[in-house]
Amino acid sequence: MTTIFKITTKAEWQQAQTKGLFEGSVDDKRDGFIHLSNQQQLRTTLDKHFKGQKDLILLAFEDSDLGPSLKWEPSRDDQLFPHLYAPLPTDYVLWEKPISQQSDGTHILDIPGMSTE
Fold it and tell me: pLDDT digit string (tens) for 1-22?
């Protein structure tokens, strides 16, 4: 089992919790799948796609819970990224954590057992 992550806004997550399903961000809907990251991909994902954004949440999931709709596909720098081709049930979340930010807009990944670099 591998822990994978979704970065989303607090507003998107609150809406998903109301429905019981996370159906994806605007970018996810445009691309036809929910963009996820593994632990090693999080820093680059934050820096590339979320720089300066506030009110972000980091969600953690076990890849084995997501079933056959989860595909590992080449993306940025030919790395294999987890892509989910189905809505994400909110009760699959292992934990959620707000992502704090430094004054220069860089996000702080303060996850136990995980490097912040």
Answer: 899 999 999 999 999 999 999 9
Asked whether the CA dihedral 87, 91, 93, 94 is positive or negative, the reply is: negative
* CA 111 to the chain's CA centroid: 14
Give pTM, 2 decimals. Answer: 0.89
**Rounded Cα distance, 93 and 48, in Å:** 24
Q: How far apart are CA 9 and CA 32, in angstroms?
A: 19
36-85 confidence digits (pLDDT tens): 999 999 989 998 889 888 899 999 999 999 999 999 999 888 899 999 99
* Burial class for 103, CB neighbours closer than 10 Å (0-12, 13-18, 19+): exposed
Domain 3-108 has CATH 3.20.170.20: yes
Domain boundary assignment for the chain: 3-108
